[in-house]
């Protein structure tokens, strides 16, 4: 069974709480998120979400991951599957690491496992990684605009 790991990170000039409030507000994803176009559900451990991703110009993909970890201000992690376990599984992780009261490092990663991973490795490395980077930049912009608004 093949596996592949993608990791991206960005520094954001906002508090961990501000970044979490943007990341966990699924209802607003369509307004700002260029990668995860839609997220329905609650960021609560054990919950099943409905996610639509669209990296770049690719066709939208829908899946229903289960939230594995939800620690406000620190971590959100879910596991999504294509078809059945072992075909194409992705454990998606968002980590908010507090650097100061007004600065965090945001890390987005995913570990892919399954029989299809080898066939999709180039697409994952190209399109999916670019989608992570685009989302990171958009999360930074939205979180920082909230931070500025609260300090004005």
Automatic annotation (TrEMBL):
Coiled coil: none annotated. InterPro entries: Polyketide_cyclase/dehydratase, START-like_dom_sf. This is Polyketide cyclase / dehydrase and lipid transport. It comes from Marinobacter zhanjiangensis.
